[in-house]
Structure formats: C-alpha cells, structure tokens
Fold these 2 entries.
Entry 1:
Amino acid sequence: MFRVNENFAKLPGSYLFATIAKKVAEYKEAHPESEIIRLGIGDVTQPIAPAIIEAMHKAVDEMGRAETFRGYAPEQGYDFLREVIAKNDFQARGCDISADEIFVSDGAKCDSGNIQELFSADSVIAVCDPVYPVYVDSNVMAGRSGQYNAESGRFDRIVYMPCREENGFLPELPKERADIIYLCFPNNPTGEAIGKEELQKWVDYANEHGSVIIYDAAYEAYISEDGIPHSIYECEGAKTCAIELRSFSKKAGFTGVRLGFSVIPKELKCGDASLNAMWFRRQGSKYNGTPYIVQRAGEAVYSPEGSRQVSEQIARYMKNAGTILNGLKGLGYTAYGGVNSPYIWLKTPAGMKSWDFFDFLLDKANVVGTPGAGFGPSGEGYFRLTAFGTYENSLKALDRIARI
Amino acid sequence: MFRVNENFAKLPGSYLFATIAKKVAEYKEAHPESEIIRLGIGDVTQPIAPAIIEAMHKAVDEMGRAETFRGYAPEQGYDFLREVIAKNDFQARGCDISADEIFVSDGAKCDSGNIQELFSADSVIAVCDPVYPVYVDSNVMAGRSGQYNAESGRFDRIVYMPCREENGFLPELPKERADIIYLCFPNNPTGEAIGKEELQKWVDYANEHGSVIIYDAAYEAYISEDGIPHSIYECEGAKTCAIELRSFSKKAGFTGVRLGFSVIPKELKCGDASLNAMWFRRQGSKYNGTPYIVQRAGEAVYSPEGSRQVSEQIARYMKNAGTILNGLKGLGYTAYGGVNSPYIWLKTPAGMKSWDFFDFLLDKANVVGTPGAGFGPSGEGYFRLTAFGTYENSLKALDRIARI
C-alpha cells in the first residue's frame, strides 16, 4: 500500500486565512444583515491601474493573432521584464543585480514555498515569530520541522526568533545553528521595517556562519522613510548569502493577476553548487513560465504612466494606514507598523487573547482582522489590521471600534 | 555552512528542451541563412481562439473597475470554472467527478512536478520508458530515485516500464513494488493511446496492490478513435486509486496562457489520510490561485463558440499529424502515433542513434525534432515530431526529409 507524506499530519489545523474565511462565513450566515468590513487577509481593493489594463489588452490581442501569438514563455521569464526589473528595482538603487539573476514567477507565495527545495533535508531553518505561515508550513511538509509541541505552539527543529514590543519587533541574531534564515521586511505581520545598519548585521552574520537569508521584500513599495533598505542587496556582501523575494501583489494590486520574482545572485554558492543554476534547473523542470499577458502587465508597472499610477494607489493605502494607526492610538490602543508598510499591529486591549479579540471584534464591530497568534506564539496578544480597504471603510471600521 | 539539496547533482545534464533550444541556437548562429522548421518542443502555433480572446478582454476590463475587480482567487480555482469542467469533461462522459474534486492550476507541468509531495519520501515510483522528463526529474529532486547509472541511463530506485515496438508501446504491469505509477495517455512521446479494457487492467492492479496512478491526460482532446478513454474515471474503481492531470495547453493553445487542473477524488485515501484534503492544504499553503483572467479564458473554452473554435484548431493540427505520419510512411519510415495524439514517433533510419539523427536532420533538412533517447533509454533509436506547426511547414518539412 502506498504511503502519504506523513509530515502533512504535523501541520496544526488549516491554513490561517482559510480558518478566518470559514469563521467569517459562519458569522455571516448567522447574521445575514451584518455589513462586514474585511481588514483581515492582506488583499487589495483598488482596481488595476489604467496603464496596466491597457498593456494587458494589447497582450491579449497579440495572443489572438498568429503573427504575434506567444506559446511557452522562458521558465525564468521574458527578457523584457527581467531587464526592466534589474534596472529599476536594483541598479537604480546601486545594487549590482543583473537580469539573469532574476527569476519571474506567478507570485512570492509560490516562490517562498518552493525555495526550500534547494536545501538539504536536514537544514535547520530560523524564522521570526510571529511569521508569515508559508515559510514554516512549506518546511513542515518537507520534513525539516521536527515535531509540533501544542503547548509551546512551536516545532522542535525550527529556530524561532521572537519579535515583540521589548525588542522593537526586530529579531536577535540566532545563538544556535541556523542554515536558512527567513526575514521579511517591511514585516508581515508586524508592519515594522528594518534599518540598513541593522540589516547589515544579518548579512555579516550569514556570511560568517554560512547561512542563507531568504529575504522577503514583498512590501518594499510601502517604505516611506529614509534609511530603510528597499533591497537586501543594498547591504555589502549580500550577494554571497541572500536570496530576495519580490511581489507585485501589493506593489501594483496583482493579488488576482499573479506576478512575483526571486533574485538569486550568481555569487551565492555552496562549494561548487550555484543556487542560481539550481533554481534555473528547478524552474525549468517544475514550472512552465508566467503568462505572457501577466508579464506584459508587469512591464507596464515600470512605465512612466504605470509607475505614477501605482504610486498613487500606494499613497491611498498609506493614507488608510496612517488613519487607522493614529485613530487607534487616539482611542488608547497601543499600535505599531503602518508607516513603512500597509499593516497595523495592535496590542489587544486588557491582555485579551488574539482569537478572542478576533471574535469580539467580528461580533461587536463586524470588523475582520487577523489574530496575531495565527502567525506564531509571540503574536499572542496582538492583532493585525490592513490598510488595503477603502478609505471610507477604514474610517467606518475605526468608528465602530470606537463605539465598542 | 548551509548545504544544498544534493539530489540535484544526480540529474544528468540539463532539462531536455533546454538542451535542444541551445543546440538549435548554436546551429542558427553558425548558419544564419538557414530557415529552421521547429517540430521539436510540443508548442502550439495557432493563436488563441476568438471567443477566448473576447472572454479575456472582458476579464481584463473587470480587473480595471473597482466594482468588478478580483483580488486573491480561491487557491483551488473559481467555482465557475471547476463546475464547467466537472460537467463537461467528466459528468458528460459518465464519470462521477464533482467540482470539489477539481483543483485548477497554472498548468499540468507544475501539477505533475508537485504532486509527488503528497507521498512518503521512500515511495517507489514507476514510469514508462520513454517518458515525459518531469515525472522523473521531480522525484529525483525529492530524493526518491536512488543513484543514476550512466551506462543504463536509469536511476536504480525507479521502476522503468519499457514501451517499444514489441509491446505496441503499452507498458506491462510492474512485477516489483510500485507505489506511484505515472501513466500518460495518449502518450507523450510515443503518440500511442490506450484502450479502455487495457486501462482497466491498470486500475484493477492499482486497487489490488495499493498503488496510486498519476494519470496524465494532457492530450485527451486529440483522441479521434472510439474505445479510447478520455478520462481514467471511465474505468471502474479508478476513484480509489487514481489522480488525473489535465492541461489546456494542447486543448486550447494555452502554452503561454497557463491553465490546467488536477482531479483528486475524495475516495482516494491511505487509511484516514485523504489525498484530496492533503492537496487542498498543499495548494492553500504553497499556491496562490490561477489568474482570474486565465480562469475566465478557461471557462470560454467550454462555451458553444469556444468549444467549436478549439475543435477546429485541433482538427487542423490533426491534419498535420496525418500528413506527417502518412508522408513518412510513404518515404519508407516506420512511424507511430499521430492518430489519437499530435505526436509522431518514428524509428530512426538504419538504426541511427536518436541524437545523431537530431543533428543529421537539423543539418541536412533544417528540421528540429526531439531525440527519443531524451525521454529515456527505451526511446533510443526513435525520434518525435509534433503536428503543432503550420500545415505549410509540415509539408515543407516532409519535402525536405524526402530530399535527404
């Protein structure tokens, strides 16, 4: 009899956002009259910008004519997109990254789930706590986690790096072995960013200890302050120790369009094994390229018009972020994030548990957020709200919270 | 120091089609005047059908308006697409498959590469020989292959099922343990189909021995003869032993649009572990849904207009297939396939090695095909041509082959 991958059974419960969706659906069924404001899952609400829509229509037309039809795309992405990414996102910031170090994909979630395939089965991974669940879940499925301890809420072979109020939500360098270190800045879920000097310490640590940093910069476009690196390659030595993941989901509202990319520098090696060459082989064997139409949409994000339009969208979301952050503070809440990211990370009132606060807020204010505990044990007592709603709904949510 | 996944080093050379692309590019550089006809990689050439183009334009417009904008799609696909698939591809053929057993994806290559994640690390896999490289390569990367033996061209922990002229290109039931059996019919690369009675023997074997069949039906739309099953679920008992993979790449020319799906029946279990539930979890954690625009394109494939238009495209490719098959036979070649599939599988003349024939054909006729040996040792001495070119080029290729 065939046997299944037994590591799946170690995963506690279902995927976080699936649980939330289910709870909200149940509440809605019990209270059909309720008008729910969703500030839970990090999904955008503004439509795709006009310049990008135009580029997609053009690409659709090309697909409908024999002379311009495109079949299989290169697995690593079309040159037209890789080049504009290398130039705008890296070279323009002084990062020496070339087009052949960029691998276009259908989004950072897939990449952040798949990237662990490059590493040995016994690698020790280190994650921030709280953390985006995909890093942990994909390593659990691959058998690197050890056993789950329900009491601590932790896997016994994973190194957890707590990020709480006490350390300004910045992890401390691991004291134990950590082969693969996942960092996400600006952070999901805390919304806090990391300064360049602080990030340089991680790069130095990784080079010294032979660790690889998986740097998830999905929220880079929301950085508003100086001194916050947009890419880990702004740090010296990062090309020998870091992979960077990027997403168009939050930058240009592509959550339903699906586009992202990974940067794997050619200098990143373990002995003779080049991670760039391995990922090229992995994608060549298990991925079949990002849709042509979507890659043209991505290209349009960098056009003068597209670039201006997505900046305006981000500014609108950041207005929401400021409104929620300051509104909550005005109501006496302790809240973080919201300055260099679209997430507000608030302390639950009176030490309420995260999931209790979720139920409380859903019931009393019809507002959906994400319980901090869903991101890891150190998220207990915290709660994430997103700035991705409309301005009107952000105000309305605040108003309802004020009336509780 | 971090360590890489050492299984990658076991993969011999690069991905087959990458090697071919490189060889052709080199030839083209050395002979810039040559006009090369590409009948190698199975990529389509006809543009996307008008009804599908229209549906995509409509979906693009929806993405550009706040009222109709769609963010994250359900990871398992939108209901509108899953339902039309269940109805048309399965229920209409008497297969009791429901929408919640269908998981929409960005293509069968990803699914066929990822599906092995559901099984235990020590599972023994069985593959036809010759075979589509992804089944083997994804299991090599996951550590199930054992060592590669350069002399035999085989991995020592994989069960190979030769498909050659002697057995009518149909594999024999394995005599040794085989937990996961990959079958592809109509077959890539041989182009041969399997009859329903013959396939029933595999389903019975799998149920009896506790094996799972991964049934790749990517070329189902090319079946022209009666008595050839379009789905493995036409066989009794398949729901307790088989996963089916489907693609829109060849059915509707979606190689650059990217759409496919997997069928995992709820009855398919190992003890309490439901493979349907595990894949739901896997996709929820590591996949972020197929683009909305692409799912609407898929829906249009089933509309009366779309359905008629893609049938016409397939008829055009099958006219090429018949022309190439009969043309080669007329020239004295022994050739197979081409009746229920877009692939023609020919024996190289005078026992020439596959790669020698590749070079010979490229040089003497400027025609690119795929060396049979690239699909496995039993493909040695064979060569694959595809019917996906234009009719004009199919004739021209034949004419050039005739003049060699």
Entry 2:
Amino acid sequence: MSILVVGSIALDTVKTPFGMAKDVLGGSATYFSVSASFFEPDVNLVAIVGDDFPAKYVNLLEGKGIDLKGMVTGKGKTFRWEGEYGWDFSNPRTIATRLNVLSRFNPAIPREYRNSEYVFLANIDPQIQKQVLNQMARPKLVACDTMNYWIENKRKDLVKLLKKVDIFLLNEAEAKELAGESSLVKAAKAILKFGPKRIIIKKGEHGSLLFSGNSVFSTPAYLMESIFDPTGAGDTFAGGLVGYLAACKTQNQAGLADRQANLRKAIVYGSVMATFAVEDFSLRRLASITRADIVRRFKQFRKLTHF
Amino acid sequence: MSILVVGSIALDTVKTPFGMAKDVLGGSATYFSVSASFFEPDVNLVAIVGDDFPAKYVNLLEGKGIDLKGMVTGKGKTFRWEGEYGWDFSNPRTIATRLNVLSRFNPAIPREYRNSEYVFLANIDPQIQKQVLNQMARPKLVACDTMNYWIENKRKDLVKLLKKVDIFLLNEAEAKELAGESSLVKAAKAILKFGPKRIIIKKGEHGSLLFSGNSVFSTPAYLMESIFDPTGAGDTFAGGLVGYLAACKTQNQAGLADRQANLRKAIVYGSVMATFAVEDFSLRRLASITRADIVRRFKQFRKLTHF
C-alpha cells in the first residue's frame, strides 16, 4: 500500500545537555517518511524546501527509497527551527522559528500520489490539511497530527477536519486543551465525539494510549537509559505506526479480523522507531538502523511489558 | 503463608476537589493489611493507636480477618494526618501531622508473629524497620517502603537496611534522590547496588517499574476516568503485591520456576488494588470490594495492555 505524507522539511539547530547540532536535517515529513520506509517501500513525500537545501539530505531521503516528486524547491531559504532542551526532555525552548519558504507552502498533490491509500497529515494548518484531503481519491486510512497553536487559533477548522480522520494523534496537554478536560479519559471521550475513529495520545516517556470506540490500549514507553535528542520522536512514532499498518494491509488483503491487534502492534512499532530517533541528533541513528534492529527492540518491548 | 506488616494507623482528615473527610481511618499498616487480606487470610498487624481510636475501625480490621494482637493502644491520641489534594493528585499539601502516640512507637513483635514468612516494613524510621527485622525468625521475603524524609535524614541507616530487603518500593522522585541520578534507569541500577534484590518504582498514574538483576518490567497504570482520593494508594499497592506473592507460595510449595511471572502478576494485582483505594475516601471502597471485583479488574488490565 502506498503512503503519502504532507508536512515540513526543516534544517534544525538543536542544543541538548549533551551537545549541539547546527542546520541538520529535520521536519515532520522527514522523520515520518524515513521511519515509514522501514515497513513499506512506497512512501510519497510532499513538502517544500528552499534553494539552499543540501544535496546530501536529498540523497539520504532517496537512499531510503522515498519518492520526492512531491518535494518542491521554492525560491529562498529552507524552513529553520532552533531549540534547546534541558534535562527535562519533554519540552524544548524554541529559540527561533524561521518559516522561510514554508510560509508559501500550498501543497499540490502530484497526480501519481492521489491514489495513495495511507495518508499522514503532519502538523500543519488544518485548512491546508483539509485541502490535501480534498485532492486525494479515496484513502483507506487518514492519520493526522496537530499542535497547541492550531487548537488555539484554528479550532473550528481542526474540529471539522477530524470527521474525516481515522487516527488522530496528539499529546497529553493538547488532548486536555482541545477537550477542556483535566481527566485524560474524559478528554479522549470528548474528542472521539468530534468524529475521528481513533485517538492516540502520546505521553512521551510515559508511553501512549489508544482510544477507539469502547476499547482502550495503554502501553508504557520503551525503557531508555538516556535520551540524546527527542526532536522528531512524535513523527517517527507516526511513521512506524502508519508504515506498519500499510504493510499489514499489503500482506493481507483479506481478513481484518485482527484489526485491533494490528493497531496495537503498530503503536508498539511506532514507539520502537521513536526510541531510535532520540538516540542521536537529527536522523543520524534512525537512518542507519536495520530491520533486524527494529525486530529485536520490538521483542524486547514485549518482554518488558507482558505479564 | 503468614504476613506481618509494621506501620502506622492514622486518623486522616483529607480534602480533595470532590469533598472532605474528617478523622477517617488511614495509615500505611491499615491500607496494606486490608489490601493483603483479599489474597492471604493470615495477616498480622503491628502498630500503635491512641485511646481515642474508634471501635468501629477495630471492627473493620477484624472483619477482614486481620490479627490485631500486635496493635498496641497507647495513652493519648491516635496519629493524625491532615492534607489537601488539588487537581494534580500526585502531591498532597500536608496541613498538619500530629504524631501523638506514634512518637513513642517502638514495635515489639508478638512471639506468635516472629515466624511470619512475608514481612512488609511500611514507611517508618529505617532504624525501627531494622529493629523489627532483628526480631523476626527467618522471613522468606522482606518488602520495604520509605519516603524522602528518611532518604534525607537517615540515609546511612536506610542504605544499610537495604541489604536485607528483597523488594524495595519507592516512588520516582525518591529513587532519583536516593541515587543522585536524573535518569530513572541509572537510578535503579545504582540502588540495586545498595543490596536490595529487587526495586519497584511507583510512578502513580504512569504505572510502575520492576528492576531485578538484568530483568525489567514496565507497566502502565490502570486507566481511570477520575481519582477521588489517592491517599493510601502506595500501601494498598504493596498489600496486593505481597498478598499475592504470599498466596502463590501457599498454593505452590514446590516449583518457583515462574517466580518472575508471579512477580509481574503481583505488581498488576497491586496496581489493581490501588485503583479501588483511590475511588473513595479512606477504605470505604477498598474494604467493600469482593474477590470477583479484583479478578474482573485484573482481566481488564490485561486487555488494556497486551498486544
């Protein structure tokens, strides 16, 4: 099954207690697509970069088999984000956000991409997310991310979009803010009423929760001795999740009896992928792993959690 | 297998966003023993109460089959704690702590209790915890709780005690403080070096972690729509944990091949018991449940977490 991701490509400057990296490859579409490429070879990327975007990063993405027909090069500089993490890795301090070419991002989906069955709408303006969906033929699964900025400034558009979403991903604070509820369970129930079929609430080092109808799945995070740089963890998680689901579908056109089981495994694969992303700056670690690394960590995850 | 708990019995005055309860039954030994009594009938309690301790609470404990030969009545008032929880239930604000008779607590273990195989040293001065152990014949399992106060003021005694402890229970902040480590995994490894065979780190609404040798078990918390009053959750957890382990041993004198499996189940039973404790003030809910309620919630827990 082919996957389409629409999101950002960035050059990140990141400072952590362990060091600093300047103008390194980042962005939601980047982390997502590299992560998904380990599960499903057919990943299509729509994003905008500036004319300063280094060829080595194009090579990195192409080396993962990611289709870049949808990557537009705009006049000007690539989107840049600069941030700093303290010892508490849950919240970075943003030093600078320079949208550059991203401010003119108005994604046109290439004709060849419009039949993509699995769609990931990374964290961008919900109005643009909707425009993307309008260009798609008939996706089997739409996953969607967001952030507090859109909850606060484009709430109506976001809520409207959710009716067309199969899996809505957001973090704990965003879920509580969107629902206006201090209890996470109540927040999830309220958001499900907006229309998304399922919600995944990402809790960082505390794991994640899946709410779908009356079923709930709760999983802790994989246990890590230390985190190096958490940038991109959420999008890498989404890449593993959607990638695994697309691969399940490819391998088994028929029965979906164990859809819930696949979904749970997909969440664990997403968590596993995120652990690789946070082990180094940028995609240094994530882009260098093998399928065997992933399977090994998935098995360790099961050993860590089952009783 | 018989269980011995040494700890406090209190009259708590608790305020939460949902209401207030005055001079209600509380204390570590109370929550622990009632929780353990659902698994193992032979629970022996050592604690001190004042001459104002209400007969109805004695009846409640005796009604659960808890042996109170070790419950001494001192001259003066029962230990009282007064606290308030805000919407963030993880940390209460202590309004008043009146030790009263507890300040003279110097537990003498009744001769009939000295052969108890399972011992829980609830959160008291580590010097007193050690005196208790010195009076015991040959316990099969010693579990021990503590708090930041002892880590800060009786660190040497605590660390010395840990060599004789099979399961050391503490929360996330306490683990980091005791080890002087900001990473929980590193903290756990450092504490294991002090000598306890296993550590359980309680993370409240985020679940718990078991570290033993090279094996780690991570479990999320049972998902609750709302918490009413978290007082006693930790001791109730310990009661389910030790109670289940003692019951395993009673039922299966022979093989211990699946010791790790039992330990994991014991942690889940502990978590399950804690969910009942937090559903109402004091022991109102915990004391009124049945075995069937526990088994039902254990099964839901498995459904919530397995993939």
